[in-house]
Design goal:
The protein contains 15 helices and five strands. It is mainly α. Strand 4 and strand 5 form a beta hairpin.
């Protein structure tokens, strides 16, 4: 874990000399300054923008991520949390908003994945986490035989096994036997998993239908409030909602809830409506699907940046946004989310409008009173 104090990375204007008004001309003009202010004035020379850009480029090319902190207490909390996660072998952590589509089904699928890792994979894995009013955090901790980098492969194996349980139960039993399971145990597992997958797929379909109906009713009300009731037909409205609502099976539900990549209207969907009205309706559907309806403007802007520029880190960055927004999330995780998002904002310098980045950075710091 590589720490960097926020002052090293801030804009040079932040380090302009600070003066204080004094009533007595003999009084020390800096008598009221803080220790940090004194250090900045007398001993600390911030690097130039060119040096910062070059060092950040080198770190990025070497795949080294910075953890940004504002004070020693914050750094101590972040370091202690990192050590705890490392010693417990944290495999993955993900935050799922309470209102996200398919969140309940994903909860059951993750429990099934945990069972597969222990019963079939013979790994010592502990599923943990906690629930707040705004969402749920899922955490998997494992033995030394498992590495976080292997979890994607493990889930792929799990998905293939679920597919076998429903399409070819005999082949699924043969696979379990090759892993050393007794024939009776293999048969019980295949039967149980196959039944669970069919149940989850059915519930996914029902949840999608229920959510789409709710969204359509809300859109119709919004159109009436905009006095545009005749601007879009009920058929076009259904097409819009259907195009923007994902229809996953149990095998890709985790991908649907782990990241809220912005869906797009299908190419074969023909919808004729005023562009501004269309964007409003599209935003309503996407926010309902992602479970971000109640987030503020800045948080939604952060999620848009993550979806556009997050790359392979999009899932963890999105979790960071939700954890930062959730006042009931663990303090250490919120501090970690703040540091992670600050580092992400650094990478966007030069690619995103500077004023917008500065405003979002101040917003991130304000969430924890920095």
């Amino acid at each position: 874990m590589v720490f960097a104090h926020a002052s090293i990375l801030e804009d040079e204007s932040f380090h302009e000399e600070i003066t204080f008004e004094v009533e007595d001309e003999d009084e020390d003009p800096f008598v009221y300054e803080t220790y940090v202010g004194w250090l900045r004035r007398t001993r600390f020379s911030p690097p130039t923008e060119e040096i910062r850009a070059e060092v950040l480029k080198l770190l990025d090319e070497s795949n080294v991520s910075l953890t940004i902190y504002s004070n020693n207490a914050e750094m101590a909390t972040l370091a202690a949390s990192f050590i705890d996660d490392y010693e417990s072998n944290l495999l993955f952590r993900v935050y799922v908003p309470a209102g996200r589509l398919y969140a309940a089904e994903a909860d059951r699928l993750l429990s099934l994945f945990h069972d597969w890792l222990t019963q079939v994979g013979h790994h010592s894995v502990r599923q943990d986490g906690y629930t707040t009013t705004a969402g749920r955090v899922y955490e998997f901790f494992g033995d030394a035989k498992l590495l976080p980098e292997e979890m994607s492969q493990k889930f792929s194996e799990f998905s293939n096994f679920l597919d076998l349980c429903t399409s070819d139960p005999d082949a699924a039993e043969i696979e379990l036997s090759s892993r050393g399971l007794a024939r009776g145990s293999a048969s019980d597992i295949v039967t149980r998993y196959g039944r669970s997958v069919r149940r989850i797929n059915t519930d996914l379909r029902h949840e999608r239908e229920t959510r789409m109906l709710s969204i359509r009713h809300r859109l119709e009300s919004e159109l009436l409030e905009m006095n545009e009731g005749g601007a879009i037909s009920s058929g076009d409205l259904a097409t819009l909602v259907n195009s923007l609502t994902p229809n996953p099976s149990a095998l890709n539900t985790i991908g649907a809830i782990a990241t809220s990549s912005i869906p797009h209207v299908q190419a074969n969907a023909t919808i004729t409506v005023n562009q501004q009205i269309f964007q409003n309706l599209q935003g309503t559907v996407i926010q309902s699907v992602q479970g971000t309806v109640h987030l503020g403007t800045e948080a939604k802007q952060l999620l848009e940046l993550v979806a556009t520029h997050g790359g392979d880190d999009a899932a963890s960055l999105e979790s960071a946004v939700h954890e930062l927004e959730d006042p009931d999330a663990r303090q250490a995780e919120r501090l970690g989310a703040k540091a992670k998002l600050s580092a992400f904002m650094l990478k966007l310098r030069g690619t995103v409008e500077a004023a917008g980045l500065a405003a979002l950075q101040k917003y991130i710091e304000s969430k924890l009173g920095a």
